[in-house]
């Protein structure tokens, strides 16, 4: 969908998200890792996340841990060049916000300088100091609790969180502390629906659910999951709205067949010489002369 012949979409802002939370309007968020995905998603969604999930979705890693700040910068810049109307959020990758406030601010500030409107970081009580440091520097922060992929080794895999009394109540405490530290929104991933509903009820900031039931302030899914572009096992919380992987393979296969039988390119895909040059080209013969 092109914006060129339409009225430009109004930019989504952090105050707008808060107003939507207060009015009960649900937020739609998806990922984009390049300009193509950003242009497809932007007229439709409210938030675009340049996620560190690029590691396992696009770069072939088993998880998000190998993703670096440099990798995130590369993909963020590609998305930012499309100048989306959606709020553009960049993930803080592993080790980019763990070793001190100075490095955390530098890494997050670099994302804003490259076009992000905000950053997202994983974790609860242990990350409060970093959240406060960023907010004090006017860097908007989205929190992330529950199944936090950067903690995959500690969790023993990608497992639903908050299923015991201790972990459920700790998540509610962490959500409250992140809000108090200045987070403008909170992603809740891989937790029981009732727990996410309670967190959403108790918080004044919006919650964005992924595998967290229907009662959050909004929902996020990975772009490739929604379009069925991922192979193999899909998490329980994913709903693919088309089989993009198969559709793309079928289209590529039709093109390959046409190439092999000489049906591509056709006349409509060819450039033609001007009439006055055709005769000269048709009658050209190699010159036997050599330069002296």
UniProtKB/TrEMBL annotation:
Binds 1 Mg(2+) ion per subunit. Pathway: Cofactor biosynthesis; (R)-pantothenate biosynthesis; (R)-pantoate from 3-methyl-2-oxobutanoate: step 1/2. Its EC number is 2.1.2.11. Its main location: cytoplasm. 3-methyl-2-oxobutanoate binds at residues 52-53, 91, 120. Keywords: Cytoplasm, Magnesium, Metal-binding, Pantothenate biosynthesis, Transferase. It is found in: Cytoplasm. It comes from the Bacteria. InterPro entries: Pantoate_hydroxy_MeTrfase, Pyrv/PenolPyrv_kinase-like_dom, Pyrv_kinase-like_dom_sf. Homodecamer; pentamer of dimers. Catalyzes the reversible reaction in which hydroxymethyl group from 5,10-methylenetetrahydrofolate is transferred onto alpha-ketoisovalerate to form ketopantoate. This is 3-methyl-2-oxobutanoate hydroxymethyltransferase. It comes from Bradyrhizobium agreste. The gene is panB.
């Amino acid at each position: 969908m092109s914006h060129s012949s339409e009225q430009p979409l109004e930019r989504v802002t952090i105050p707008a998200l808060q107003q939507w939370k207060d009015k009960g309007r649900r937020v739609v968020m998806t990922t984009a890792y390049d300009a193509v995905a950003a242009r497809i998603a932007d007229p439709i969604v409210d938030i675009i996340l340049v996620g560190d999930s690029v590691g396992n979705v696009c770069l072939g890693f088993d998880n998000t841990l190998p993703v670096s700040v440099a990798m995130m910068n590369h993909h963020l810049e590609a998305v930012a060049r499309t100048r989306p109307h959606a709020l553009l959020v960049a993930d803080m990758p592993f080790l980019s916000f763990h070793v001190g406030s100075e490095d955390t601010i530098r890494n997050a500030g670099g994302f804003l300088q490259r076009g992000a409107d905000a950053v997202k970081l994983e974790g609860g009580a242990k990350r409060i100091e970093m959240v406060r440091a960023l907010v004090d520097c006017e860097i908007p922060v989205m929190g992330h609790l529950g199944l936090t992929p950067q903690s995959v080794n500690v969790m023993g895999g990608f497992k639903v969180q908050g299923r015991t009394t201790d972990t459920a109540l700790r998540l509610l405490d962490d959500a409250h502390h992140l809000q108090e530290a200045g987070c403008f929104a909170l992603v809740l991933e891989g937790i029981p629906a009732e727990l996410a509903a309670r967190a959403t009820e108790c918080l004044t900031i919006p919650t964005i659910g992924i595998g967290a039931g229907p009662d959050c302030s909004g929902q996020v899914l990975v772009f490739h999951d929604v379009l069925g572009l991922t192979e193999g096992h899909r998490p329980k919380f994913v709903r693919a709205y088309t089989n993009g992987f198969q559709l793309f393979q079928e289209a590529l296969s039709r093109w390959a067949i046409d190439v092999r039988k000489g049906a591509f390119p056709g006349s409509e895909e060819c450039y033609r010489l001007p009439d006055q040059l055709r005769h000269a080209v048709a009658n050209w013969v190699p010159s036997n002369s050599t330069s002296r």
